[in-house]
Amino acid sequence: MKLAMCGLGKMGANMTRRLLKGGHQVVVYDRAPEPGQTLAALGAQPATTLEGVVAALPAPRVVWLMVPSGEPTEALIRALMPLLSAGDTIIDGGNSNYKDTQRRAAMLKEHGISMVDVGTSGGIWGLTEGYSMMIGGDAEVVKTLTPIFETLAPAPDKGWGHVGTNGSGHFVKMVHNGIEYGMMQAYAEGFDVMKSKAEFALDVTQIAEIWQHGSVVRSWLLDLIAGGLVADPDLSQLAPYVPDSGEGRWTVAEAIDLDVPAPVITLSLLMRLASRQENSYAARLLSLMRNQFGGHAAKQAE
């Protein structure tokens, strides 16, 4: 099957490599020429313009987008829309907000162009392990794309599925990432407790490796923790600053809209925000209040 991949960051480039290895023909496009040149050596067909992308594809065309959510995705879809024809399909494999996806699908439908949203998980490991894909869109359109999903997935019959109408794939991926926030926070807190127990001088790297086998908390995240601790046991190379890419915020907002209590996901998001405050005004105000009402000693700034 021949398709285009627009956006050749680490994930888009690795997905292209997996597609090429699976026998697909892939036209590649990125604003920077270097990634396309690298993939050309592996058999991809580079294009330097969106017009070139569309011209290189047989009808009905399939164009997969792997660009940041928000304005980059919006701009790329709007640029492609007048170049494509009725019967063509745009796949958004990024982390778009599902409400944007629903709006874009309706906009494209007016031109006879199909939209398929693919919530994609796998990160840098997807090239070798395969990608987990949560797919939203018209069932018949998704069916025609089956060979692509079977190639990208961990196995043809595992790790991917059509979950519902447009927006549902990105919605499920949003919740997936919210759950991921909570799991990561739980691991971080547990290891922090063990690391802080000076009495036992626990080797948390060893403990992570013990838990990898037979434990009810074993997981791929734990495998990554174990590998990372072997490389940097004291995490001396890392700053205590944790970004978020938006999906946790969207999950919390959706939970509030649906009157669904989600305290773990919510708190894990707030802890990420707290990690970015080097000199928290709120913490200093708390210290002030304790000193004012109880005469408690307040630590002075250095």
List the helices and strands and how they pair.
Elements lengths: L1 E5 L3 H12 L3 E5 L3 H8 L4 E2 L3 H6 L6 E4 L5 H10 L8 E4 L5 H12 L4 E8 L4 H4 L2 E5 L2 H6 L1 H7 L7 E5 L3 H29 L7 H8 L8 H12 L15 H11 L5 H12 L6 H14 L8
Parallel strand pairs: 1-2, 1-4, 2-3, 4-5, 5-6, 7-8
Antiparallel strand pairs: 6-7
Overview in brief:
This protein is of the alpha/beta class.
CA radius of gyration:
23 Å
Q: Mind describing the biggest β-sheet?
A: 8 strands, mixed
What order do the SSEs take from the amino end to the carboxyl end, as H and E? EHEHEHEHEHEHEHHEHHHHHH
Gap from first CA to last CA: 63 Å
Task: Please tell me what the overall shape is.
Answer: globular
- Share of helix, binned: 40-55%
Assign the structural class, choosing from mainly alpha, mainly beta, alpha/beta, alpha+beta, or little secondary structure: alpha/beta
- Number of helical segments with 4 or more residues: 14
Strand content: 5-15%
Number of strands: 8
Mean pLDDT: 95
- Unreliable spans are none
Widest sheet: strand ordering: 3-2-1-4-5-6-7-8
Q: Can you give a write-up of this model?
A:
There is one protein chain. This protein is an alpha/beta fold. Helix content is 50%, strand content 13%. It is built from 14 helices and eight strands. It has helices at residues 10-21, 33-40, 50-55, 71-80, 98-109, 126-129, 139-144, 146-152, 168-196, 204-211, 220-231, 247-257, 263-274, 281-294; strands at residues 2-6, 25-29, 45-46, 62-65, 89-92, 114-121, 132-136, 160-164. Strands 3-2-1-4-5-6-7-8 form an eight-stranded mixed β-sheet, with helices on both faces. α2 (33-40) links the parallel β2 (25-29) and β3. α9 (168-196) crosses α12 (247-257) and α10 (204-211) runs antiparallel to α11 (220-231).
